[in-house]
Amino acid sequence: MNLKDLKKKVSWHDFLLIAIILLLILLQVNLVSNLKQLPSPLYGGDLYHQLGAINHVKYGGNPLVNFHNDDPIPNYFPLYTGIVGGAARIFNLESMQAMFLFSYIFTILSVIIFYFLGIILFKNKNVALLLPLIYYSILTYKLRLVIKYSYFAALVMLPLFFMFLILTLLKSSENNKTKYVYAAITSILYGLCSLSHGVMFPTLTILMVLIFIYLFFYNYLHETKFKIKKWKEDLKENLSTFLLLAIPGFLISQLYWYHIIKGVIFNPRSEASILLNMNANLEYSALNNIFETIFNFSNMGAAFVTLLFLLSIVILFSLKKYKEVLKTLRFLFISTLSIIIILIIIPFLTGTSFTVILHKVISIFQLPLMIAILTTLSLYILLKIIKRKNKAGQHIIIILVLIFLLFTNYSGYKDYESYKWYETGTEPLPSYYTTIADYINANTDVNDVILTNKELGFSVNAFTGRKLVAHPPGHKTLIYDLSTREKDLAIMLYGDDSAPREELFEKYNVKYFYWDYYWIHSEFIFNQEGQIVGLFDPIELLNTDENKEILDKYNIRYTEEKLELNPNLRGTVMKYDVLLVYPQFNLTHPWSSSLDEFLNLEKEIKIKDQIGVRLYKVIY
User: Fold this and answer.
1) pLDDT tens across 48-70, in order?
2) What is the SS3 assignment for 224-271?
3) What phi, psi does 256 have (nearest 5°)?
4) Which of 80, 246, 254, 335 has fewest C-beta within 10 Å?
């Protein structure tokens, strides 16, 4: 089917689509209107991490480099960040405001993409109207606001990629130039998807291998007989189509992935194996999530979709009509299952855990997309059957299903209102955050490095996009050298020798030092008697003789403990033998007094008549 076939006479379906979009946007506006900050933890929360990336771009930073520190290896996916941060810079928007604004824009795009995808597959606007609502109804309520790169990837980039991939596959058996145009667009989207989320590159690259099998073998298998003559005739065209599909996209993806691949293969760092294994005991729950996603009877909407999806599998492998569409959907269904199976097998072959990748594929990427498409297929076939017997009955069923799906989506938005971090988001931010952020943004360069502890640094980075020496381990890449950075951070903050401290200032190009009243409480939890009863995110080093020697050499206090390396997952992941570094337990001066000679006070903010925030210029 050509795209020009979509330019049909405007019908009532198109006006109803506009009404559906307006309804979804109004529901979003209702959520956003109550927010005074992001619905996320301020310290270590994903949305504030995303805000830091956007602020980095807004104030002139490069979306293709690390926005947390001076490491040349990027630590975040640049597509969403570049779009939203670039718009914030061009139109002088507050970054948080830009995130909410683009949530509306991306929702509109997403619904339109799914609508056109439904028309391409089923050539039926009645059914096409249902596809976006089915997809949205099976997604977690957290995706109701598209204010994070992963949500953008799931709701916009992946369906857009699949729309053009399906157009390419439907045209693959035809000898015309149209399929090359679609293949080129699909390839570009493959590259852009790889820049939008970490799951996309490995899973879509696996998909490219499966597409190779589809083009060269599956396409020529008819009733168990392989048509060798036709295969030889089409060999050149299929090779051209596949190369056009795979090569440009792979090259685009290397804007980000070259650094990761090079780092993992040619310059492995100590954290890579630990990060891959730290979620190992979550493997079972991720596998269990497969069954929960497919056999979801948690509510009426989920049960409705589940039953239609299971019916679609029968339809997919039994129906003889609609050969081209069913052949394409059959391939996409098999390829989705194949990707999941491959990701299940990898841990057994490599001894590492890919739970995070598997979880993302299951929860918000290929599997939900495939469930939505195949559920729509079931509705399409059922409506065809009803239409033969009673044309009016078809329209009644469509209206009833449409109302049911709209109610299900409405419930999803209401569920968001009970999300605990949404309730936090309705509370105003403390004024000192915006005051100090405004000062830093006005008086420092976006690439200046600010010395502070990890959690305070996380919040400073969120509101300014300025760089740090080290940040919380929950947001590091596979090849991020956290152990060296945390060790150097301990020496700079808590060591008693100025010579190595000054060398490290030069190494990291440290320009400023930040303190606020929350420093110690961002690392340790105290009871009313002042005793440590829990941990947030203090400096933790692997317990090695080398690390002990360095801490002892510079009189840095520590204890030997068995702890998780990711503070966000305490109690759920593997523990390691670590050295837990202690600050000076002084609320207003937790760093070593020998650091003072390098500090020149630049800005001070009072909180309830007490000094609550200080920003120092580092002189060396």
Assistant:
1) 999 999 999 999 999 998 898 87
2) CEECHHHHHHHHHHHHHHHHHHHHHHHHHHHHHHHHHHHHHHHCCCCH
3) -110, -50
4) 254
